[in-house]
Amino acid sequence: MSDMKVDTVRSSNSGVVGRAQSEARGYRLVLDSSSRAQPDAFTNSEAFLAGVSSCGVTLIEGHAKDTGVPMRSIQVTIEGARTAAEPNRFATVTMTFEIAGVSAAQADELVATYRGR
User: Fold this and answer.
1) Is pLDDT at 88 greater than 90 in this prediction?
2) Residue 51 Cα distances to 1, 21, 82, angstroms
């Protein structure tokens, strides 16, 4: 198991009901419950979606660089929809990729690389 990379995050209550603080490698992040009426910080659901979409950005950006694809910029928009009956589960998740500086075929290939990983 020496080839395993382990990421560790420690989360704790913050003293405000519905808000947690998480820490990794000395960086701190405050997250509000997704069920909180008026969140002041990123919600847990938004943070989860941000992790997925930012992975798309960084993976595609790195792959484009490694393969010599002249990508100028990338934006990924992700939307997760939950029903009132099951607010703890995403019923659908939709990602939209906007990639500048490449042809449509190159953009399709970059997104396919992300989907395949």
Assistant:
1) no
2) 25, 17, 18
